[in-house]
Amino acid sequence: MKKLKFLTLIVITILSVSCEDSFLSPELKTGTSGDAFYSNDQELEAAVINIYDGLQGVNASKITSSNLNHATQVEFYLTEMRSDNTRTKSQEGEAAQFESFSIEATNGIVADYYRSFYDVIFRANVVLDNIDAASETAAGKIEGEAKFLRAYAYFNLVRLYGDVPLITKVIAPLDTETAFTRINSTEIYALIIEDLQTAIDNLDDSFKDRASKAAAQGLLAKVYLTLPTPNYAQAQLLCEEVLDPARGFELLSNYSDVFFSERNDEILFAIGYEQGDNNNSQNFSAEWLNSVGRTSGVNYATTDVVTALEEMGGERTQHTYRIDPFQPTENQAIKYLPNGESGGDNGRTFSSDAQAAGNDWIVLRYADVVLLHVESILGGGESTSNSNALTSFNSIRNRAGLPNDADGVITKEELLNERRVELAFENKRLFDLIRMGEAVNVLSEFATTNGYSFSSTDLLLPIPQREIGLSKGVLTQNPGY
Amino acid sequence: MKNNRNINKIKSTAGLLTAIFLLTISFSSCDLEYDVAGTASIEDLTPPSAFFAATQNSGSDEAWKSYTFSNQSNSATQYNWEFAHSSGEIITSSEIEPEHTFPGEGDFVVTLTASDNLGVESVYSETITVVMPLVPTVITPVISEWAFEDGTEDGGDTLGCVFIQEDGTPKTPKNDGTNCWRILGATVHNTSSDGAYTVPFDNTSGKTQGAKYPATGEGNDRASYQALTVTPNIKYVVTFHYALKNEGDKVRVGILNGWMDNASELEATGFIAEADGAVSLGKNNFTEVTFEFEANATGEIAIWIDNVSTGDTYLDNISIVPAP
């Protein structure tokens, strides 16, 4: 009997408690939750900063758990090392798959970057889903910033992986259909253009390590030139707006200052890093040197790029690569020496922590836009002698201590070469070759010379096998993998 | 003793089970047959799929005839390409990504057969239409009423311009050499019989109709505007003839960096290039002016003509042609 009474009491208690609505979804009183958090400008601003944090990526030397997102810090593997500019020093391991065009769908770096950039998109979508909470005065800027960053992420994904899933809002974990259905790149580009237009309308030029109007215009110009059917006129107009002296951008007279004086007049958009701060520093500066980072040395200059730099680089050459002081048969990229330190006589001795470098990663700079201006006037042709194109082209050459173009006619090849030596080791080369339709020619020849095997399907990375596995058969692989 | 007996029991049970087990094996083993796995005994779960994309080459004179083929097949190990020429000849290749030169313009069927090591095949074919790329033509803009003549013949309104007035209604064309030169916010030029000879240039006058811009600042200011489309970023030469009555007067021809809806947008639009006629030889004594400009990114430009003068100024025979 005693037991029965006790049981009855329990049942009654349960019943009475369960009558409350919030029993199964109690309101969180002791902390914050995603559902209720984004309720004012300040909280949305925090969410915007969170997008930049995603882009920054985790410093793998300082926070070593695997499967974290390293985002921008591993971008050079997928871009520069997949071009004729750089390779690993050891030519071994997963990292060496890039230089030899023999990437496996299981490559961890390919999966890392893919995951990282969808994380950036997720973070941007969080802001955009909650934009209603912003005040009227702040809404435009917050929306513009989030859309610029989302467009930048999609632009990188669509150029690297081809058709990719298009996610424009925060989706539920079980929404496999949206998360894994590959959408035609035409639609991806349509979103990129729309997002960048919004960014242009809502932003000004007050930041260099956050989104700005100039950055959005420059990026959109590049997007217009990258489209399967390029829009040369729109690209030219956008470049000319950024080139307007009233905007305050210029080529620095000293090329080396571009990389070692942060937020200078040549920067349109850079991803900021903080020296010595485990959460906000980067390790790629160390990785590019001889066993200073976790690897024995990656993103080392190829003989091919060294020849090009010696031939056409002018004053830029000495600030772009050096002979590895520790291993004089090899050549290192030196635009991002950790915290501006050369590493002493052996190139490996630093007073600061080289693995926690603060060098900002330059995404877009004025010189890039100046050469995009030439490219838009060239308009897909073989050459141009237009005076505006020549003015832009020669300004880049003159800064490097080189004379004006000799015959007053800029050919496509000259433009590609100029871009190569001006923007070497800045993750531009591969995209330049693809955009100007020379990737297959140039990379096949490069592969033959170096004993690699290249085919045109190598221009797209594989979709990470891990994602295909998660997709329950929805996500399809790129040809050739 | 009790314990011992139990052990014996267990032993005998175990013996019996073993015997049954062996017996079962020996019986059933008589029925066992093994198949050696042969070719195609297991279904090909990853059959090949053939696909390719073709890109026309560019560069030197004959480069347009050759194409680079991008092999986008999946799960295949061998490839066979067939390029069917119109002569009936079929050229084959087993390269992964061949480059092929076609004999010339025409439709050619290209077939790719991709197969894997199990002998499963997939075929994809596509007709490639080889066309010699057009040499980009440079536009020579048609300037309607270039000689400010009446009518709709050459020199007059060959395009049939209709001017939309302030109230939104179209103005009835007068065909008097002013149809195409009007814009809101400005009064169009007068026409005058004191124009220049038409081309070729002759420095005597009175032969054809021309445009007249009277003294400025007296409430009778006049200007002319005509929107044109040219090829972006290409260099053009502008030519016009003018005559001035008084010393110190000038007439201006400018190329606007875009189209306008109203003359008030003049300053915001700005000139790509402009030239003044400022040599005063008196009425009926015309001077020829030429100047160059480079078209903007869109190719949307416009002609603007106005004057600063104390007396009548005359303008005629305006042309824009690509620079040689």
Primary descriptors:
heterodimer; A: about 475 residues; mainly alpha; Serine Threonine Protein Phosphatase 5, Tetratricopeptide repeat; two-stranded antiparallel sheet; 20 helices; 10 strands; B: about 325 residues; mainly beta; Immunoglobulin-like; Jelly Rolls; 5-stranded antiparallel sheet; 4-stranded antiparallel sheet; 2 helices; about 10% helix; about 35% strand
Structural overview:
- The complex is a heterodimer of chains A (481) and B (324).
- Chain A has 20 helices and ten strands.
- Chain A is mainly alpha-helical and 481 residues long.
- In chain A, strand 6 and strand 7 form a beta hairpin.
- In chain A, helix 9 runs antiparallel to helix 10 and helix 10 packs parallel to helix 15.
- Chain A is globular, with a radius of gyration of 25 Å.
- Among the domains of chain B are: 79 residues, Immunoglobulin-like (Sandwich); 144 residues, Galactose-binding domain-like (Jelly Rolls, Sandwich), CATH 2.60.120.260.
- Chain B has a five-stranded antiparallel sheet, with no helix packed on it.
- Chain B is elongated and about 140 Å long.
- The termini of chain B are far apart.
- The model of chain B has no long low-confidence stretch (mean pLDDT 87).
- At the A-B interface, helix 11 and helix 16 of A face strand 2 of B.
CATH topology of the domain at 40-203 in chain A: Serine Threonine Protein Phosphatase 5, Tetratricopeptide repeat
Q: Beta-strand percentage of chain A?
A: 5-15%
Oligomer designation: heterodimer
What's the arrangement of strands in the largest beta sheet of chain B?
8-9-16-11-14
Order of helices and strands of chain A: HHHHEHHHEHEHHHHEHEHEEEHEHEHHHH
Largest sheet of chain A: 2 strands, antiparallel
Count of beta strands of chain B = 16
User: Which class of the domain at 179-322 in chain B in CATH terms?
Assistant: Mainly Beta
User: Rg of chain B from C-alpha positions?
Assistant: 43 Å
Main sheet of chain B, how many strands, which sense, barrel? 5 strands, antiparallel
Radius of gyration of chain A: 25 Å
Portion in beta strands of chain B? 25-35%
Which regions of chain A are unreliable across 5 or more consecutive residues at pLDDT < 50? Answer: none
